[in-house]
Design goal:
The chain is mainly alpha-helical. It is built from four helices and two strands. 52% of the residues lie in helices and 3% in strands. Helix 1 packs antiparallel against helix 4 and helix 2 packs parallel to helix 4. The radius of gyration is 19 Å and the shape is elongated.
Length: 153
């Protein structure tokens, strides 16, 4: 069942993209567990700028097919989109933690850029999933300001 929460919940273009991201996230883990130091016996695995460029290319490619936004998007819509929004928030949290770590340890610069762009790609993929299903759930500013409060009696 845990696998269902990943690629299997998504359709269309997302599963192979998410498979590549999963592999990249293991590269990031390998990079982070071996901070940059001189004099290492073996060169540690480092995230490459090409991996960041691929994420940016995916954002551009899949965002181009979407309708322009007229409002902020609320997390939700299809199940796959909701799960991608959750993944996006986890990626943002990881980005903040890695950025904080960068003040204490040398971090591969591409790594922070990758995490930043990853959350943007997950947002775009959530919109792609909603485009194929129920559509984006848009924020309607002030929509509930004047709503009546239900009586408790």
């Amino acid at each position: 069942m845990p696998y269902r929460l990943g690629r299997a919940s998504c359709g269309g273009v997302a599963p192979p993209i998410l498979a590549r991201i999963q592999n990249d996230l293991f590269d990031i883990g390998a990079d982070l567990c071996r901070p940059e130091r001189s004099g290492l016996k073996a060169e540690p695995l480092r995230l490459q700028e090409a991996q960041v460029a691929w994420i940016e290319a995916m954002i551009d490619e899949h965002n181009a097919a979407l309708r322009p936004l007229t409002s902020f998007v609320l997390p939700g819509g299809s199940e796959a989109s909701a799960l991608l929004h959750i993944a996006r928030t986890v990626a943002r949290r990881a980005e903040r933690e890695i950025t904080e770590l960068a003040f204490q340890e040398p971090i591969t610069p591409a790594l922070i850029r990758y995490m930043n762009r990853l959350s943007d790609l997950l947002f775009v993929l959530a919109r792609v999933e909603n485009e194929a299903a129920a559509g984006d759930v848009l924020w309607h500013p002030g929509a509930n300001r004047d709503a009546a409060i239900p009586s408790s009696g």
